[in-house]
Amino acid sequence: MVNQNHTKIGKLHKKKIRPRDAHVGKIFHPRDKSNVLDSGISLWFPGPKSYTGEDMVEFHIHGGIAVVNSVMEALGTIPNVRMAEAGEFSRRAFDNEKMDLTKLEGVADLINAETEAQRRLAVRQAHGELYKMYETWRQRIVGVMAKIEAFIDFSEDENIEEDIYSEVCREVDWIINEIELHLDDKRQGEIMRNGVSLSIVGPPNSGKSTLLNRLAQRQVAIVSPIAGTTRDIVETTMNIGGYPLVVRDTAGLRSSGADVIETEGIRRAVESAKEADIRLFMLDARKVFDSDNGSTTSKLLQKTEWHELLSLPHTFVVLNMADGVPSSESPNMKVKIKEWAQDRGITNQTVLLSCASMYGWECLMQLLAEHIKETWGSNSAQHMPLTKIRHRQHLKNCIKHLNVFKETDEEMVVLGAEELRKASKALGQITGRVGIEDVLDALFSEFCIGK
Ligand SMILES: Nc1nc2c(ncn2[C@@H]2O[C@H](COP(=O)(O)OP(=O)(O)OP(=O)(O)O)[C@@H](O)[C@H]2O)c(=O)[nH]1
Questions:
Q1: 202 CA from centroid of ligand 1 (Å)
Q2: Is the CB of 78 within 6 Å of ligand 1?
Q3: Secondary-structure class of domain 191-376 per CATH
Q4: Pocket lining: 115 vs ligand 1, CB cutoff 6 Å
Q5: Ligand 1 binding pocket includes 364 (Cβ within 6 Å)
Q6: Sign (positive/negative) of CA torsion 167, 171, 176, 180?
């Protein structure tokens, strides 16, 4: 609830509430003290030491619909009190300079975090790790700008240090280097924030949809023995070892027998697989090890399209239907798989699986969790990773202007100074004081009511 009339809020209690003390007691209707709405805890935060920087009061009440409705209705009878809009508290905090834009984005991510890895990343951002880093760089650029101004004004003066210009260039080099290191992060933060994308690809009837359903633990995709059942991309999100995963089931890859719609599905399948962070290339193990069908699968594996997908990094081969392969659980099977892969030039890590009996399931889950953790999950990095494309764009822009400054002739230092100003502005746009109305509108739509 938002109010311009906080003193009246006190009317919901009989005793006076002290600032920042938990007040336990009955909550009354402000217009009818005989009407007890609930018993709860109230907290009063006088501004500016509050989340928004303004006077705030919190009511902790029982969560039943009738209790919440009666307290809301009672608050609504106080003049100038109304329901807050989505993100209004945070917007006020931003307007009152209690938070910068990166912290706000961290709060929004915290609200929407679904996995432990996302929560950890969001907490770091909400606590200002990105803000501190970007603000440090901006302050250093401002320092450089001050030196350049002195150089412009007093370069004729004998007192000005002779090597000030080269000192400034060294400082600019340092900033560029720091930002480049931050940008070169394998998109770690963005991937953790949005989820690691995983595409399941392979020929029809290899069990791709069955695997998706197993991962999602519900019937997301249609499973049938008819080849070409999946025609478009079916997507679901899940949590694997605390990491967010966006899994996509795709149309089976085949070159003959597909109609126009399925052909379009196959095109999308290949596109999705190429774009994904991880690929599971699924084959029917029965066909792979069957003397009649084995050579057909081998020929298909040589197809340029299949070969291209298999040679992409982060691609694993899954030999499904292990339950249909004789002695699949024998120790010799590992050697057999190794030989099969070597003979076909397949270097991808390969897992034997049965979506029916769940043989190999633990092995696949462990492989994925460890791979994600090793590749994108080391969140304990000294510097926090980038979390948004928006930040990346402004940082690239900042580097671009710093490089133009460096290339500008010393004689044209006034033009160079303008580039420094643009570089500092680019960083200011990330933390949010320059031209960010559209960003704010989009951001606050992600918040829940109130917060
Ligand atoms: N025996 C056995 N059958 C399986 C296994 N996994 C899937 N199947 C069956 O294989 C058939 C095809 O499975 P799907 O999951 O629809 O295969 P798909 O690769 O998605 O097929 P498309 O949609 O044509 O690309 C279904 O009848 C499944 O029940 C398995 O591990 N063992």
A1: 11
A2: no
A3: alpha beta
A4: no
A5: no
A6: positive
Nearest CA, atom 27, ligand 1 = 225
228 lines ligand 1 (CB under 6 A): yes
C-alpha distance from residue 212 to each of 207, 248, 311 (Å)? 9, 8, 23
List the structure tokens of 75. 């608050």
CB distance 265 to ligand 1 below 6 Å: no
Cβ 320 under 6 angstroms from ligand 1: yes
- Sorted by sequence, the CB contacts under 8 Å of residue 396 that are 6+ apart come out as 183
The angle that helices 88-95 and 101-112 make with each other, rounded to 10 degrees, is 160
pTM of the predicted structure, to 2 decimals: 0.71
**Nearest CA-CA partner of 329 in 285, 365, 373, 371:** 285
pLDDT tens by residue, the chain, 451 residues? 544 444 556 678 888 888 889 989 899 998 888 899 999 999 989 989 999 999 888 889 998 999 999 999 988 888 887 888 888 888 899 889 888 999 999 999 999 898 888 898 899 999 999 999 999 999 899 888 888 887 777 666 555 566 788 889 999 999 999 999 999 887 888 888 889 999 999 999 999 999 999 999 889 898 888 888 888 899 998 888 888 899 999 999 987 777 888 889 999 999 999 999 999 999 999 998 887 777 777 778 888 888 899 999 999 999 999 999 988 888 889 999 999 999 888 999 999 999 999 999 999 999 999 999 888 876 555 678 888 999 999 999 999 999 999 998 878 888 988 999 999 999 999 998 665 555 566 566 666 656 6
Indicate if ligand 1 lies below 6 Å from the C-beta of 207.
yes
Which CATH architecture does the domain made up of 2-83 adopt? 2-Layer Sandwich (3.30)
Q: How far is the CA of 194 from the centre of ligand 1 (A)?
A: 29
Phi, psi of 138, deg, nearest 5: -65, -40
For residue 235, the number of C-alpha atoms closer than 13 Å in the C-beta half-sphere is 13
Q: How far is the CA of 320 from the centre of ligand 1 (A)?
A: 9
For residue 270 and ligand 1, the question of a CB distance below 6 A is answered with: no
Give the start-to-end residue ranges of the domains of the chain. 2-83, 102-173+390-444, 191-376
- Superfamily assignment of 102-173+390-444 in CATH? tRNA modification GTPase MnmE domain 2 (1.20.120.430)
Q: By the 8 A CB rule, do 372 and 196 touch?
A: yes
Question: Alpha helix locations (H) across 218-360?
Answer: 260-275, 285-288, 294-301, 304-310, 332-343
Residue nearest to atom 8 of ligand 1 (CA): 207
For residue 224, how far is its CA from the centre of ligand 1 (angstroms)? 6
235: closest CA among 264, 258, 269, 203? 269
